[in-house]
Amino acid sequence: MASTRMRERSSTLMRSFSSNTPLSKLYAPNSRQVVFSSSTDPLTGAEIALCNREIVSGILTKLEKSIALPVARRFNLKYAFIGEHHPTANKAGVTYRQRIDSCPNSVLPMNPQYVYIIRVRIRSRSSPQRRMLTFATHVAILLHELAHLRHMNHGREFALFLRDIYLFADEALHIFDTRDLFNEIPSPWEWERKIWDSRGHLKDDELIELHQAWEILRDPSNQS
């Protein structure tokens, strides 16, 4: 049910974009957000209101202003909005594109266009009513999803680009100067954990070697 509500809410936002927003604005970062208002009790299936929605909204605003917007401008990345990923979702974050079939300001027929949407898990999965994930966890999820705006896979180019984003976040944005550096959802992949541990200070050859080892483990037929 959570995924159905997510799609319905996204469709509503996309209709709003199509009817009210010039096409040029759809491809620029902005502060449009989605914050979930309810969850489902795993035992009874009943809808439960989620508390602290204002806190979630504030965290999303901080993440966008301090990280997403500067990263998007530095690397020429474009997205429609950042929203909360539902606390019961399997993945910690997701980046996907939404199709827009029309533009009211266009006098000529246009091909379908797409906007990119980022969702980040903000709440603790085990205790969504009472606890938010750490700032460092939000950062790790967000940087990963921002890298997907250029590479919608986990290939070598994605890994190198994610490293570059981390390096910018460390050297230019000083994101990792905070003492709260505990990532509650560490990557299952060694190459990504190395990017996190080094804050992006990782040479190409070392990262490529780690990524190649991961690819071989994932699919032994890739071994040359």
Structure summarized in a few sentences:
With 224 residues, the chain is of the alpha+beta class. 44% of the residues lie in helices and 12% in strands.
Quickly list its features.
globular, 224 residues, disordered N terminus, single chain
Structural account:
The chain is of the alpha+beta class and 224 residues long. Helices cover 44% and strands 12% of the residues. The protein has one domain (2-222). It is built from 7 helices and 5 strands, in the order ααββαβββαααα. The strands form 2 sheets. A 3-stranded mixed β-sheet has the order 3-5-4, with helices on both faces. A two-stranded antiparallel sheet has the order 1-2. Helix 3 packs across helix 4 (135-147) and helix 6 (190-198) runs antiparallel to helix 7 (204-218).
Q: Give the overall form.
A: globular
Count of alpha and pi helical runs: 7
Mean pLDDT: 81
| Strand ordering within the main sheet | 3-5-4
Question: What amount of the residues lies in strands?
Answer: 5-15%
Radius of gyration, taken over Cα atoms and rounded to an integer in Å: 19 Å
Q: In whole angstroms, how far apart are the ends?
A: 44 Å
List the helices and strands and how they pair.
Layout: H1 2-20, H2 23-26, E1 38-40, E2 47-49, H3 53-75, E3 81-85, E4 93-100, E5 113-121, H4 135-147, H5 156-171, H6 190-198, H7 204-218
Helix pairs in contact: 3-4, 4-5, 5-6, 6-7
